[in-house]
């Protein structure tokens, strides 16, 4: 469908090198939809090298100077901030999609992948409300309950309810123990992962539907086989005419990464060359399409324009982006960097500077703070130093909502002989809203097992097999029973069955030991082990 209407550009418009040179066309009054009007924009977009001379700096756009250790930066680098969000440990909880509450806030017997535990779910629903209305800042939530009562599942459900725009950072208490990094440093990093910043910027972009995409190849100048891409010609169509751009090969990579093809609506940032795929042009909406696609209308106005771009980053992303080793792309500075450790330190000073800039942005109305959620599982693993840090950090005005989870009762605070409820000092406990989770009934366990089986594509045909699994769960634990599903299904498929039977469950149960059985055997045959 890329018609031959596309008169190709003058062949000798060779790759001129001046960086960030965007020639303005002299025809702003192109007739709507006139594809004949091909303007040649020589957008040689160089990459995001920090040394690049910037266009006349607007007060807040494209801050890309890296603060050096000594000099106080007036701007920070947000152009190429990459998300450092951790992959979540959801394998065991992939069925959890939300809290499953009615609009009135009462828990459905089953909803969002969760079953039972109604009281805790309703309480969690209120906490979600508090977080959304920003009334929870600086406070903490404690999920307390036995093993396998759904504390982690509940925390993830809260995160799901808050939506993907609110940062959620999960960690385990024992993560703070490292021989290289201070405990409080680990906590600080996670705190900052859980604080989001929504930055609104007005950026110069080229936006439109892709009507042409031709990489131009040349012989590899360094010799050898193969060809390199010397430039990419891309044609963009918007409400008021079309435009043809010649782009740097580095942009071709980002085009490929975003899987841009003809008919997609994209925009390219003029300064950084970053490519964003907005969706598929709705002209194609009638096509028979198996994949779920987002169809968007043809962008209005000119191809080359200013656009309000919203970027969600966390404070930790900013720390990392601004702490990266200094230096250019030339050989000398690369050599200099080789000796240095890859991971540069994020210093207190750098953080303070970022904080200052961030509050400046917030005051100017350029950015908005989005406090997220920090989830600390197994909180009883933390020691007094960490608790002291948490007490102080919760007070700060840049604090996320903190959710703790623990399965301990009255116990010693780690590293001391001071006893405290849940192993948490009372002064911190005092700041917490506490939600208790209770052991599940047999009926709930049966449903949870069926949900898990469905998620893992395991067919439970009759009630016998469910009963067998519930029996296992009652004797051992819910988690053991759900974990047994996969080995049992492997045993059953080896036998050529397409569904699980009670015999498979028994067989798998015979092959593995749950924690209690394993402990019993250790006690019975203690003499055979070294201790
Ligand atoms: N109410 C529930 N509904 C559905 N699945 C649940 C529910 N509670 C727990 N689970 C599942 O049971 C397993 C154990 O729960 P988990 O949240 O890990 O317990 P805890 O963190 O309290 O030890 C997980 O796979 C979890 O997703
Ligand atoms: Mg857990």
Automatic annotation (TrEMBL):
GO cellular component: nucleus
Reaction(s) the record says it catalyses: ATP + H2O = ADP + phosphate + H(+)
Residue ranges annotated for the AAA+ ATPase domain, each copy included: 137-426
One Pfam family of this chain: TIP49
EC number: 3.6.4.12
Enzyme class name: hydrolase
Gene Ontology terms for molecular function: ATP binding; ATP hydrolysis activity; DNA helicase activity
Record key words, sorted: ATP-binding, Helicase, Hydrolase, Nucleotide-binding, Nucleus, Transcription, Transcription regulation
Family label: Belongs to the RuvB family.
Listed name of the protein: RuvB-like helicase
């Amino acid at each position: 469908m890329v018609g031959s209407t596309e008169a190709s550009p003058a062949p000798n418009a060779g790759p001129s090198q001046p960086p960030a040179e965007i020639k303005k066309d002299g025809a702003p009054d192109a007739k709507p939809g006139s594809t004949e009007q091909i303007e040649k924009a020589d957008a040689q977009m160089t990459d995001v090298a920090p040394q690049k001379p910037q266009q006349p700096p607007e007060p807040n756009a494209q801050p890309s100077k890296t603060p050096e250790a000594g000099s106080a930066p007036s701007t920070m680098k947000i152009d190429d901030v990459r998300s450092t969000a951790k992959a979540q440990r959801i394998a065991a909880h992939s069925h959890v999609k939300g809290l499953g509450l009615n609009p009135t806030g009462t828990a459905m017997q089953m909803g969002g992948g969760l079953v039972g535990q109604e009281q805790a779910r309703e309480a969690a629903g209120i906490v979600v409300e508090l977080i959304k209305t920003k009334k929870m800042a600086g406070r903490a939530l404690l999920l307390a309950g036995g093993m396998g009562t759904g504390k982690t599942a509940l925390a993830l459900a809260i995160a799901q309810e808050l939506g993907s725009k609110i940062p959620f950072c999960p960690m385990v208490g024992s993560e703070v123990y490292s021989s290289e990094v201070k405990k409080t440093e680990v906590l600080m990093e996670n705190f900052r992962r859980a604080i989001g910043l929504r930055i609104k910027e007005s950026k110069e972009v080229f936006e439109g539907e892709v009507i042409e995409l031709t990489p131009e190849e040349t012989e590899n100048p360094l010799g050898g086989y193969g060809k390199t891409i010397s430039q990419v010609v891309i044609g963009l169509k918007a409400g008021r005419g079309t435009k043809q751009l010649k782009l740097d090969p580095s942009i071709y990579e980002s085009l490929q990464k975003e899987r841009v093809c003809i008919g997609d609506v994209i925009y390219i940032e003029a300064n950084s060359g970053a490519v964003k795929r907005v969706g598929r042009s709705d002209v194609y909406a009638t096509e028979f399409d198996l994949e779920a696609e987002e169809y968007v209308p043809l962008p209005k106005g000119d191809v080359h324009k200013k656009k309000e771009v919203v970027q969600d980053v966390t404070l930790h992303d900013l720390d990392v982006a601004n702490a990266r080793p200094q230096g250019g792309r030339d050989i000398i500075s690369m050599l200099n960097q080789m000796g240095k450790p890859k991971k540069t330190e994020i210093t207190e000073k750098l953080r303070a500077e970022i904080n200052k800039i961030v509050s400046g942005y917030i005051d100017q109305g350029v950015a908005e703070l989005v406090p997220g959620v920090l989830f600390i599982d197994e909180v009883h693993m933390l020691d007094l130093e960490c608790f002291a840090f948490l007490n102080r950090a919760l007070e700060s005005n840049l604090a996320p909502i903190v959710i703790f989870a623990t399965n301990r009762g009255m116990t010693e605070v780690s590293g001391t002989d001071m006893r405290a409820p849940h192993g948490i000092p009372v002064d911190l406990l005092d700041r917490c809203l506490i939600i208790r989770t209770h052991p599940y009934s047999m009926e709930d366990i049966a449903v949870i097992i069926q949900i898990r089986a469905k998620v893992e594509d395991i067919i439970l045909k009759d009630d016998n097999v469910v009963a067998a699994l519930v029996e296992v769960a009652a004797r051992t634990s819910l988690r053991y029973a759900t974990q047994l599903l996969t080995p049992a299904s492997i045993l059953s498929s080896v036998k050529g069955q397409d569904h699980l039977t009670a015999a498979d469950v028994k067989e798998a149960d015979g092959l593995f030991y749950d924690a209690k059985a394993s402990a019993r055997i250790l006690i019975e045959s203690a003499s055979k082990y070294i201790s």
